[in-house]
Amino acid sequence: MKDIPWYQAFFGKDYLRIYAPFLPPEKTAREVADILALLDLPEGSRILDLCCGNGRHAIPLAQQGYQVSGLDLSEPLLEKAVAEAEEQGVTIRWLRSDMRNIPFKNEFDAIINVFTSFGYFENEDEDLRVLQQVYQALKPQGLFLLETVYQPRVMRAFTPHGLTRYDDGLIVLEERYIDLLTSRNEVRITMLDAEGRRKEHKHSMRIYTLTELIHMLSSVGMPVQAYYGGLDASALTMDSRLVIISQKVI
């Protein structure tokens, strides 16, 4: 029996339990404000949050008056997003799909892909297919904002192990390995709760260089307009994250 891909198995309740404590509402609010400042879109513009997860960015974007769609593969995260949007009284079009299949054409003024949601697939051709789908879904002159890890920072800050203790007694151990031939960051995650129950997940991501991403984006018709070290438009450094803004050309 073929193993389920890690990105189908990981993004659910355990994912939220691990990361939610590090994503308070005030952080999300700052990120949304920064995204809107970078994109500078007219009110009412159409935005697709690609790999929207539980709607952390899609919902506040809709609250700002934008026409928002959210696409994700995780059913548990989308269920949480739908419930939260209903509670907040905002209308968002939610779609469950693989990011290699974005079922729109010339639909969006902007597409965002944030919080390290690119590079998941087994080879570069599949990642390139994602960008081709982004191009197809954007309107002419539409913008694509990609926010992810920056390869030099990953390399410079690399440690083979990490241990995090949570207030509820959860312990999360990360065992990390970077394959220098394939430029993949491989992580095995072990969760041990206060009752001693143990669960394991894996995470595998291709960490692209800025040069590689610029080439990939240009090859599908979305030349890069700007790049930064964060959503706050700070300068790119060896120790920053990476934000790229590209634009669809015909």
UniProtKB/TrEMBL annotation:
<keyword id="KW-0489">Methyltransferase</keyword>
<protein>
    <submittedName>
        <fullName>Methyltransferase type 11</fullName>
    </submittedName>
</protein>
<feature type="domain" description="Methyltransferase">
    <location>
        <begin position="47"/>
        <end position="142"/>
    </location>
</feature>
<dbReference type="InterPro" id="IPR041698">
    <property type="entry name" value="Methyltransf_25"/>
</dbReference>
<keyword id="KW-0808">Transferase</keyword>
<dbReference type="Pfam" id="PF13649">
    <property type="entry name" value="Methyltransf_25"/>
</dbReference>
<dbReference type="InterPro" id="IPR029063">
    <property type="entry name" value="SAM-dependent_MTases_sf"/>
</dbReference>
<dbReference type="GO" id="GO:0008168">
    <property type="term" value="F:methyltransferase activity"/>
</dbReference>
<dbReference type="GO" id="GO:0032259">
    <property type="term" value="P:methylation"/>
</dbReference>
